[in-house]
Amino acid sequence: MRAIVYSEKGPSSVLRLVERPVPAPGVGEVRVRLAFSGVNPTDVKSRAGAAARGSFAEVTPGQDGAGTVDALGLGVEGLAVGDRVWLYLAQHEQPYGTAAEYVTLPAGRAVPLPEAAGFELGAALGVPAITAHRALTSGDVARLSPGSFEGRHVLVQGGAGAVGNAAIQLARWAGASVIATVSSDEKAALARAAGAHHVVDYAHTDAAAGVRAAAPEGVDLIVEVAPAVNNPLDQAVARHGATVAFYANNGGDQLVLDIRPTFSLGLRYQGLLLYTLEAEQLETAVADVSAAVSAGALRVGEDAGLPLHRFPLADSAAAHDAVDGGAVGKVLIEL
User: Fold this and answer.
1) Does residue 315 have a pLDDT over 80?
2) How many CA atoms lie within 13 A of 11 on its CB side?
3) Residue at 82 is within a domain
4) Is residue 301 part of a domain?
5) 310 and 271 both lie in a single domain
6) Rg of the Cα trace of the chain?
7) Domain span at residue 151?
8) Which residues of 88-234 form beta strands (DSSP E)?
């Protein structure tokens, strides 16, 4: 099979296209013939050496993907050869991920994909959708379903990013009034396409006033991508008892809190990382995300606010460079 590998950390030029034997699934594993691999910042950072996740002599990157079950290992139940699936944490704690024609992984990380959902959508779930789900369930709402966020206001900081897009779509499906912040007209159009009820351009307007206009009593939950720089805005628009769920360090590595306003507002700060979620949190996220996919509530493409950038497997280095360069939308490797 064709696969992308690297044997040392570094720039995208360390990625090589090679031929490797088709792997056999082990006990409790499935083998999947990939249609698409999703590229995320975590893949780029791991390859570059900024994030250490296991030490292997050779690595095929890619946590996310979608394709067809090709073979079953011993003891696998609930899946069959020919099933369409989306994958998450495919390369977690093992050397070989989804930037290859085939991948083997624990069966629980291969999730049935409805016939109506394309493989592009399946490959775009994983990291963004599960991260968004955990952020949204960091406050008073433990599960996402239609109506579970009824009467609540959710602020999504960075509404044009992949996680932001998933958070907007999931929160709207759950009944929230969704406010998104963006930095340009182009990104504002994408956030609206994703389903945001209100969009605030923080780069050219008074962001706090814009958010307060949409949520006069404050927002109940904030999905935060840049806590170091956005915390003054978060505190200005949060209602008492709100949760700030942060999943990245865009804009800086140090979050400084003014103690009195923080405890006066009764704020809760919840950090989250996909790789350290509890098994129950992952299972809940997968179940809720799958329900949203089945309901048609999660979509990809320009009309869903998430433009797709497709690269052939041989151009995986260019795909990594696109993510590293801040490509707006979702970068996919087409197998």
Assistant:
1) yes
2) 4
3) yes
4) no
5) no
6) 20
7) 129-275
8) 102-106, 110-112, 153-157, 177-182, 198-201, 219-224
Q: Does position 53 have pLDDT exceeding 80, yes or no?
A: no
Q: How far apart are CA 114 and CA 130, in angstroms?
A: 18
CA separation, residue 56 to residues 6, 9, 92, 106 (Å): 10, 11, 12, 18
Structure tokens at 231: 């915390």
Six-digit token pair at 170?
């999931």
pLDDT number for residue 302 = 96
Rounded to two decimals, the pTM is 0.97
C-alpha 206/C-alpha 232 separation (Å) is: 13
CB-count exposure of residue 259 (10 Å: 0-12, 13-18, 19+): exposed
Is 146 found in the same domain as 116? no
Phi, psi of 128, rounded to the nearest 5 degrees:
-65, -45
Question: For the segment 97-107, what is each residue's pLDDT rounded down to a tens digit?
Answer: 999 999 999 99
Residue 194's domain is classified under what CATH number?
3.90.180.10
Specify the range with the lowest mean pLDDT, choosing from 44-53, 143-152, 176-185, 277-286.
Answer: 44-53
Q: Are residues 58 and 159 in the same domain?
A: no
Q: Where are the beta strands (DSSP E) in 158-293?
A: 177-182, 198-201, 219-224, 238-246, 268-271
Total number of domains in the chain: 2
Same domain, 103 and 50: yes
Q: CA 3 to CA 95: how far, in whole Å?
A: 12
Distance spanning both ends of the chain, measured CA to CA: 11
**Cβ neighbourhood burial of 325 (10 Å; 0-12, 13-18, 19+):** exposed
Q: Are residues 12 and 69 part of one domain?
A: yes
User: Measuring CA to CA, how many Å separate 6 from each of 10, 131, 148, 331?
Assistant: 9, 26, 44, 19
Together in a domain, 203 and 81? no
Q: Which two tokens stand for residue 19?
A: 């031929």
